[in-house]
Design goal:
single chain; about 240 residues; mainly alpha; Glycerol uptake facilitator protein; 9 helices
């Protein structure tokens, strides 16, 4: 694979991920949306579908990491060459930014109808239910470790899972992480998915948007990067070689 394919695949996949993922949050929390009040199950299901579709679309192009934590974890395992890291990361962050802008456009009339600034920010990025930085960081580390362990398990040859079923199962995995581990922090488990839309929130002319909460922004970046590498190394060293 060359850098062009890596960039195009990651840009497209991450754009779709954020468009559909942030889009389901917008559908649930924005006033006068037809999905308003749908709740956490709708959000987690929507994010699971978003991941599955993104992986189906980009998987054959770039491997569909669609997440810097996955890219760095695979680099730690020696499966992603250092020369491709800039293309992967640029595609992911730029794709996430564009996806967030598209969500803003899709729901353009609804921003002014929604008075809750925190709800509007939640469409773009995560925030803790209880602000406790070390606990929040641990949640993101654990959640992303589970993501990498699950992804590596799904695609391990000994499971004999057909390639066409893999993206669906990754989406199901993300759905499960959201249901089980998403309550404390909103389960970013992806630095691009959180940071790039947070930048979009800061830049876009969203009526009554309030703060972008930059004081919290480091947690959904550092936590997933650490957790992804730990999860991948744990699976590789303790399970894959059995």
């Amino acid at each position: 694979m060359d850098a062009v394919h890596a960039f195009i695949g990651e840009f497209t996949g991450t754009m779709l991920l954020v468009l559909l993922g942030d889009g389901v949050v917008a559908n649930v929390v924005l006033a006068r949306s037809k999905g308003a009040g749908g709740g956490w199950i709708v959000i987690t299901a929507g994010w699971g579908v978003a991941v599955a579709i993104a992986v189906y679309v980009a998987g054959w192009v770039s491997g569909a990491h669609i997440n810097p934590a996955v890219t760095i974890a695979f680099y730690a395992l020696g499966t992603t060459p250092a020369a491709l890291l800039p293309a992967y990361l640029a595609g992911q962050f730029l794709g996430a930014f564009v996806g967030a802008v598209l969500v803003w456009l899709v729901y353009l009339p609804h921003w002014r109808e929604t008075p809750d600034a925190e709800a509007k920010r939640a469409i773009f990025c995560t925030a803790p239910a209880i602000r406790a930085p070390l606990a929040n960081l641990a949640t993101e580390i654990i959640g992303t470790a589970v993501l990498l362990i699950g992804v590596l398990g799904i695609f391990h040859a000994n499971n004999g899972i057909g390639a066409g079923l893999g993206p669906y199962l990754v989406g199901l995995l993300v759905f499960g992480i959201g249901l089980s581990l998403g309550g404390p922090t909103g389960y970013a488990i992806n630095p691009a998915r959180d940071l790039a839309p947070r930048v979009a929130h800061a830049l876009l002319p969203i009526a009554g948007k309030g703060s972008s909460d930059w004081g919290y922004a480091w947690i959904p970046v550092i936590g997933p990067l650490v957790g992804g590498a730990l999860g991948a190394l744990l699976y590789d060293r303790l399970i894959a070689g059995l």
